[in-house]
Write a structure and sequence with these properties.
GO molecular function, one term: DNA binding
Protein name: TetR family transcriptional regulator
Keywords: DNA-binding, Transcription, Transcription regulation
Shape: elongated
Number of domains: 2
CATH class of the largest domain: Mainly Alpha
Strand content: under 5%
CATH architecture of the largest domain: Orthogonal Bundle
CATH superfamily of the largest domain: Tetracycline Repressor, domain 2
Helix content: over 70%
Number of helices: 10
Structural class: mainly alpha
CATH topology of the largest domain: Tetracycline Repressor, domain 2
Order of helices and strands: HHHHHHHHHH
Pfam families: TetR_N
Number of strands: 0
Length: about 190
């Protein structure tokens, strides 16, 4: 084959395996040895296919964000209140799915990021900021369209929903049940 020999592994499958390792152990808790074992690749093959650990983590973050689109789609609900309710309940379902580690990769990795990895911490903070801004934009749209289902200012509501969402993730990662998390969402919605 022109251009070198073909890859002897499934790139997407290996990326999904790396995603699960990072999701379970966070960025700092994930060693190259752990990645090699999960992905079934030697270090040289891993570096050749994915680059450094940082490069691989950034690819994993992109894959993770693709997987979380069903949660983001909740913002298409007709009212702000409906969007908040669906967003948080879908978030609970996503962070407690039996198909992957519990919690949120982005939040979990941010909790365990030392100063030596300030660039990773900054990337994670930016992703959380973008999510909060997306929420705020949706809430501003609702307000401009006359939606009065929630009276909080869009920026305040976006910060509130982000904080609840991130807190749910931490609790899910620590073993709190899906039902309990849904109950927390119901209480948070009553607080609106």
């Amino acid at each position: 084959m022109a251009g070198g020999r073909p890859r002897e592994f499934d790139f997407d499958k290996a990326l999904d395996q790396a995603l699960d390792v990072f999701w379970e152990h966070g960025y700092e808790g994930t060693s190259m040895a752990r990645l090699e074992a999960a992905m079934g690749l030697g270090r040289a093959s891993l570096y050749a296919a994915f680059g450094s650990k940082d490069d691989l983590f950034r690819k994993v973050l992109n894959r993770y964000r693709e997987e979380t689109q069903p949660t983001a789609a909740a913002l298409e609900e007709p009212t702000v209140r409906d969007a908040v309710r669906e967003y948080l309940h879908r978030n609970v379902d996503a962070i407690t799915s039996p198909s992957h580690p519990h919690g949120c990769l982005i939040v979990g990795s941010a909790l365990r990021c030392s100063p030596e990895n300030a660039d990773i911490a900054a990337t994670l903070a930016e992703l959380r900021r973008v999510t909060t801004q997306t929420l705020q934009d949706r809430f501003e749209q609702g307000r401009s369209e006359g939606d009065t289902s929630v009276t909080l200012a869009p920026a305040e509501l976006a910060q509130y929903v982000s904080a609840i969402s991130e807190g749910l993730s931490v609790r899910a990662a620590s073993g709190v049940s899906r039902q309990t998390l849904h109950t927390i969402v119901d209480v948070a919605l009553r607080a609106l």
